[in-house]
Amino acid sequence: MKPLILIALAGLMLIAVPPGFAQTAEPEPGKIEKFEKALQDTTKRETKRETKHESRDEYMHCDDDEAESFAAVVSEYVAIGVFGLVGYLPGEEEPFYENRRTLFPRYPYVVKDAGIYCLEDSVTNGKLSAVIVSADYFQQGLRLKGEEATVRVFPYPIFDFTFNYTELVEDVSYGKDRIVLNSYLVNYRRLRLPGFNFYWGMGVKTIRGDRYYRGFAMDAGLELFPAKPLSLSYNYTASDIRNALVSEHLARVRGHYKKLACYIGYRTLQTGRQGIDGMIVGWEAYF
User: Fold this and answer.
1) CA 193, CA 190: separation in Å to the nearest integer?
2) Tens-digit pLDDT profile for residues 37-52
């Protein structure tokens, strides 16, 4: 008899509970939402940290002249090395470029040793300007996908203008979450060898999601052309978005056929402890 009474009481309790009392758990936030929240949190945290450091530095001092002198010497040599890497070394034309101009071939591997650059007289119809266009598809898991387009304009072999558009879309419980990133960069092509090139640059990065962000950006990258028809490339971009660091890594392996190339790669986007990363597949065209 007692079990029947308990069952009846339980039923009455369930009936008496208001409809809005028992609610489902909050939906798990998606990768894009977590990334944007981390960007907001990191921005606030870095601002507080800067204030704390400024207060602490007011009480710090150093009276060791020998240490300061040694640090000055080391800094001088480091500055020379950094300038040689990112700037210019007197007389480098002879060992690097054989005192010949660097030009753009019609496309990579038009001759055996040509990458996106070639030395003057090594190919016919070498150019002083070029345009490279690429587009790819990004995916992380089943819910997060994206598209990216990049245009690199080379008015002259020594520098380029790079424009990048990236849109990421994620399927979430309430529909679709979207974030758009744009980069506008000017790159100095530091080394322009036929089989290898290295560059660095700076510009502006914008991020548009629930909010709009804009900040200073710097990038650096390299491309390696080991043997036809393959090439490897890597690019790193660091952006200062309201005192928060947003870092991007992009690595690709390309297969070339005349003026076209197909590639696969991996891309990461991170701020704070939250990141978005996944595989990419795309194509590239040379003009």
Assistant:
1) 10
2) 888 876 555 555 544 5
Residue pair 258/275 in contact by the 8 Å Cβ criterion: no
More confident residue, 40 or 166: 166
Tokens of 138: 């990004």
Q: How does the average pLDDT of the chain come out, rounded?
A: 81
Cβ pair 251, 274 in contact under 8 A: no
Of 83 and 168, the structure prediction assigns the larger pLDDT to 168
**pLDDT at 59 (0 to 100):** 42
Residue-range domain boundaries for the chain: 102-286
Residue 167 has pLDDT above 90, yes or no: yes
pLDDT score for 14: 46
CATH architecture for the domain at 102-286: Beta Barrel (2.40)
